Amino acid sequence: MAQLAKILLGIGTAIVVALSFLYLPAAEGFPSPELARIVALHLPNAMAGLVAAVAAGCYGWRYLAGGRNPLDDARSLVAAVLATIFLALTTVTGMVFAQVQWGQFWNWDPKQTCIFILLLIFAAYFVLRAGIEDEEKRATVSAVYILFAAVMTPVLGYMVPKYLPSLHPTNTSFDAAYHTVIWSASACLIGLYAWLFNLGVRYERLRLHLDAIVRDEP
Amino acid sequence: MLPLLIVALLIWAGVFAFTFRVDQRLSQLENRFGVGESGKDRE
Hints:
- The structure holds two protein chains of two kinds.
- Chain A is built from six helices and no strands.
- By secondary structure, chain A is mostly helical.
- The mean pLDDT of chain A is 90.
- Chain B has two helices and no strands.
- Chain B has helices at 2-33, 36-42.
- The interface between A and B is medium-sized, with 19 and 19 residues.
């Protein structure tokens, strides 16, 4: 990523953080209107997590269909790590919101239950990787599994909870200020995801290069 | 609300500065071992 893009991302995110405190109105109708602003962090994290999970699945598919390039396996791994981080942050911000609005950190609400299952699915991916020693076999099995995880992300994150009775409001109509801040924050977090993904892939490329040097040494 | 905003901005500044530093360090390593775009620049 160009240096300018990184600096713009830094400044843009700082502006969005400031806007979420200074520009967003308190959300009337919630038990704690001031703290309802946390949705400006909660929803964008979920979107970045979805993007990362889909990217992980795409690279898994590319590994299987496109010549078994070890770098595609590395890309899939990095995207899966980031998806797990963003989904965990979505869960934590959701728990804070739940405590403030519904009086409990965890309510086994369908959305909370679904994201918990999703986190377990991603955790199982890392356990699976750690359990296979042969690199090629690990990459192949992981690529198949991450495809499943990527498909399950929108299913468990959005589709299943939509059809179950939930504490989450279904007819939420945010005003224009919330839309502006939530979409801007989503763009910033997806930008941050792209940067971290770039760093992770570069690190993995360097690691593969150094591994090859060590292997080739007599 | 203002103290919370300052804390949030400081956290973001920390995350950004750390990521930027890691990026620079990685570029140095790529240069050293001739890997990736930074490494190609050197070559």
